């Protein structure tokens, strides 16, 4: 059994997974509010040991097999995926419904068909009912949406819209609502749902609602935090790693096998 062949195969699969993430980041370099994804590459042995520490089972594997397994278990693999919530740049647009959040850990809440979701997208519109929503039609939720039946922000017709730094919404100088802006207790609990929505388990318990402060920049659009240069470097590096692994696999399957057959045949 050629242990190195299996290790290289696992490493190549890990690089393919990393390339998928990198190419998706590059595809969304201009997507408003997009947050880049990242991966952590480790080895199977660490994951295996973590689970064995939990299980009350002794390892009765023979010593020779332990040596073989230890070699195979060093195979690299993606052990964790994460979202980078580093604050991104903002772009001035002058649109009164472009509302950039002042911090990478702040979120709006929107109503979707699957319940309340979080978002950091910043471009909103007024729908046909006079309600503020995303361009996908999800209603932007007000500060008191958890305690009220009114889960929308409705604007008077033809009023001049303004939003202050705390998220209070005004029409012709009269306050009509306050935006729900929150921080998440643990960002690691967040899962992506599409490019601009986030799912959070027990959402109402894991949010810290922001009241007064500098949270919103009206007339600015939140940009993607993807660094195109870094992602291109990662893309080239990953492609070269895969090319290298292919050469190693060829060496194992062709050169080493040929040498083994030749030597065995000579001894016979």
Helix content: 25-40%
Q: Radius of gyration, rounded? A: 26 Å
Largest sheet: 5 strands, antiparallel
Total strands: the figure is: 18
Q: What can you see in these coordinates?
A:
- This protein has 268 residues and is of the alpha+beta class.
- The chain has 2 domains: 3-85 and 227-267, no CATH class; 90-222, no CATH class.
- It is built from 4 helices and 18 strands.
- The chain has helices at 3-27, 44-54, 63-72, 228-267, and strands spanning 37-43, 76-83, 90-92, 99-101, 106-112, 115-119, 124-126, 132-134, 139-140, 161-163, 168-171, 174-178, 181-184, 191-193, 197-199, 207-209, 216-218, 220-222.
- The strands form 7 sheets. Strands 5, 6, 9, 13 and 16 form a 5-stranded antiparallel β-sheet that branches. The protein has a 3-stranded antiparallel β-sheet with strand order 10-11-12, with no helix packed on it.
- A hairpin with a 4-residue loop joins strand 10 and strand 11 (168-171).
- Helix 1 (3-27) packs antiparallel against helix 4 (228-267).
- It is elongated.
- The mean pLDDT is 83.
């Amino acid at each position: 059994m050629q242990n190195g062949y299996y290790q290289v195969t696992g490493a190549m699969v890990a690089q393919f997974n990393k390339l998928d993430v990198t190419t998706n980041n590059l595809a969304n370099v201009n997507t408003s509010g997009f947050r880049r994804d990242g991966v952590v590459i480790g080895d199977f042995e660490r994951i295996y040991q973590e689970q064995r520490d939990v299980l009350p089972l002794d390892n009765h594997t023979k010593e020779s097999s332990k040596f073989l397994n230890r070699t195979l278990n060093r195979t690299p693999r993606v052990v964790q995926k994460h979202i980078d919530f580093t604050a991104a740049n903002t772009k001035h647009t002058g649109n009164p419904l472009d509302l950039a959040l002042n911090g990478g850990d702040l979120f709006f809440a929107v109503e979707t068909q699957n319940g309340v979701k979080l978002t950091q997208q910043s471009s909103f519109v007024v729908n046909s009912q006079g309600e503020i929503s995303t361009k996908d039609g999800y209603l932007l939720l007000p500060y008191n949406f958890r305690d009220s039946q009114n889960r929308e922000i409705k604007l008077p017709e033809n009023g001049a819209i303004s939003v202050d730094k705390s998220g209070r919404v005004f029409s012709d100088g009269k306050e009509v609502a306050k935006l729900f802006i929150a921080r998440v207790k643990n960002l690691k609990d967040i899962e992506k749902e599409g490019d601009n929505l986030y799912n959070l388990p027990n959402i109402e318990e894991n949010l810290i609602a922001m009241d007064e402060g500098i949270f919103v920049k009206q007339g600015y659009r939140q940009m993607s935090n993807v660094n195109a240069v870094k992602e291109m470097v990662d893309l080239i590096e990953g492609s070269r790693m895969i090319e290298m692994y292919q050469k190693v696999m060829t060496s194992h399957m062709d050169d080493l096998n040929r040498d083994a057959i030749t030597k065995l045949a000579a001894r016979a």
